[in-house]
Write a structure and sequence with these properties.
Length: 271
């Protein structure tokens, strides 16, 4: 059984995947798998979000579509038995059986089922099952992705990811099959300079250690003295700054939130 996987760091927000989905499904009936998608729907949607404050802002793009849940609440909610799982694991809504009562739309915690007012049915991503059945190796969205951020992976590839694999809304207990790598996490940013030399400091080692212990994350400042420590998972960090020839500095118990810009950090040159 294959599934979609998004590597968030590789996504550039070009929306080619979104457009490919529209191209494949708007105005095209692929019965019995799906009927034509309504123009206002996005079975594949790139959700853009900004975190942090200028000038230290991270923009994330998240491909959101049907997560192909193992415990799919949409299936349980459908009283017409219109939602079914194929032997290859793909969950589909039968356009002929759907009564249009929209119970599945209310039940899906990911908001990825859409109501088509023209055909009076609920619709969602089909993983281009009509193409897979004709020998395609992947859905149109994957083929259209220029950075290989979106891929179509098998069970073995998923297993090999070990602790790196993540899922959207795990608290919903739907056991989604779509896999994400590098989901957006809190970050700490700032810039380091030497006031006595009036110089941005490159190559400063910035080390963030969780208050109370845990694995440290380390980055170096760039040639503008800027740094960004990504992937923070604890609420507060002790942060140290070190560069040969300069007095080291430590800032204790920084509360991160979703993003924290600590601004300028001064390091003084040793005499
Ligand atoms: S993401 Fe929503 S539509 Fe897709 S299987 Fe899960 S509950 Fe159903
Ligand atoms: S096509 Fe690929 S890079 Fe472009 S928005 Fe979609 S997932 Fe991101």
């Amino acid at each position: 059984m294959k599934t979609l996987m998004l590597d968030v760091e590789k996504c550039i927000g070009c929306r080619n995947c979104q457009l490919a989905c529209k191209d494949e499904h708007v105005g095209n009936d692929w019965l019995p798998i799906a009927s034509s998608q309504s123009e206002g729907q996005f079975w594949m949607w790139i959700d853009q979000s900004e975190r942090g404050k200028q000038p230290k802002v991270h923009i994330d793009w998240l491909a959101v579509t049907c997560q192909q849940c193992e415990d799919a609440p949409c299936m349980a909610a459908c009283q017409s038995n219109a939602i079914y799982r194929r032997p290859d694991g793909i969950i589909l809504i039968d356009p002929k059986k759907c009564s249009g009562d929209q119970d599945c739309i209310a039940a899906c915690p990911y908001g990825v089922i859409y109501f088509n007012p023209e055909s009076n049915i609920a619709q969602k991503c089909t993983l281009c099952a009509h193409l897979l059945d004709r020998g395609w190796k992947e859905p149109r969205c994957v083929t259209a992705c220029p950075t290989e951020a979106l891929t179509f992976v098998d069970e073995e590839q998923v297993q090999a990811l070990d602790g790196r694999k993540e899922y959207l809304k795990p608290e919903e207990n739907t056991r989604p099959r779509m896999v994400y790598l590098g989901l957006p996490k809190p970050f700490l940013a700032g810039e380091v300079f030497s006031p006595t030399e009036d110089l941005c400091l490159e190559g400063v080692i910035v080390r963030a250690t969780p208050v109370g212990g845990g694995e440290s994350l380390t980055v170096q400042t760039n040639n503008y003295g800027d740094f960004s420590v990504k992937g923070l998972t604890s609420a507060a960090y002790n942060v140290s700054f070190e560069k040969e020839g300069y007095y080291p500095k430590q800032i204790s118990s920084l509360k991160i939130g979703e993003a924290l810009n600590i601004g300028e950090v001064k390091l003084y040159k040793k005499a």
